[in-house]
Amino acid sequence: MNDQQCVQELLDFIDASPSPWHAVATMEQTLIKHAFQRLIETESWGLSAGKRYYVIRDDSSIIAFVAGTKSLVNHGYKIIGAHTDSPGLRIKPHALFKTGELLCMGVEVYGGPILATFTDRDLSFAGRLSYQTTTGDIKTKLVRFEQALLRLPNLAIHMNRTVNEEGLKLNKQSELPLLFASSAEEQLPETVFTELLSTQSELAAEQILSWEFNVYDTQKGAFWGADQAFYSNSQLDNLASCHAGLSALLDKQVLNSGNTVICAFFDHEEVGSESTKGANGSFLPDTLERIALASDLKPEEYKRALAQSFMLSVDMAHAYQPNFPAAYEPEHKVYVNKGPVIKLNANQRYSSETVSEAMFIRWCQQANVPFQKYAHRTDIPCGSTIGPMTSAKLGIRTVDVGNAMWAMHSIRESAGVLDHRYIIDVMQCFFKSE
Ligand code: CO
Question: Ligand 1 mean position to 201 CA, how many Å?
């Protein structure tokens, strides 16, 4: 597969995944095709060495792994961590409301999106709903509206004369509701919405109990630039890292390496990871411990396995944008198409330290892939990742890395074609390492 095809696969994955719940379902389909077997948390787990498994918690966090044939105590867990969620807009519980002659959709801001980028886009929504079956059970179902249904039109410049000098500022309560329909009919907004869900989900309106919906951009991913060396789509942060991690896991040599290799992808990173399925929750510790128990490890042996383990915490990095030189640390600019970025921060906003960094550099050298080092400007607060949380909880040596991208948290982000293949190659080296 060439670099372009590899990124096309990523773009297709994102286009099929308009919400974190869809992202996990898309990855699940890929895992099933590769003979991974689902484990259920309420059931007892019997694992066979060399076999492939996955666990899903609450539809939007997933851990996939191969039970190694090599000793877990001596080789540890080799983990790639990333997140399935992206910042954006979520539909409010009482979704539709009338304002003048229009029906609008109320939205809540999820995480820290660049709100101005949501204007004048062909938006729609997707997510999951819970419904009651005829026998009284509660089930969930994914729902996606394919057509552009929603829009946030800009104010004309004639009414916002200073927009180019002062930037587009939007009040989160009053200026974000999305336009949905003309409201000529006498129908109640609540009924309009329930009927919409009912038709799309093929469920009776009275069966539908609750739901969570993400607003997404219906525009598909694309290549751009000379030689089409760059690509753009929504949710590159951090579905690009999920796709890279999964691609590395599914490599034949990795699957047959005998190592206990793991992809752990969590929801709720963009809002702090503090939830049942977030990276700061119990999902990863529970799963690692259950793998140890099912492999007949004694408690001390489990701790030894953790001490022997390594995690690549993979999340996107900030590529240099030459129009804004003042935003970057001048000696630590990183570029797209120049290889994975090692993220370093003395205040432990990133989990990288000397040894984990050195190990990552070695894997880059083995894979013949260039690498770069990033530090944030000292006078601007630095972002963080799941790395510091999971490493603190489990005591697993971790390095924070990721590919460089432009416009992080815009609804249309961009990155470099070469980097995707690069990071997959390094991930494979890591998974196959002794
Ligand atoms: Co991220």
Answer: 30
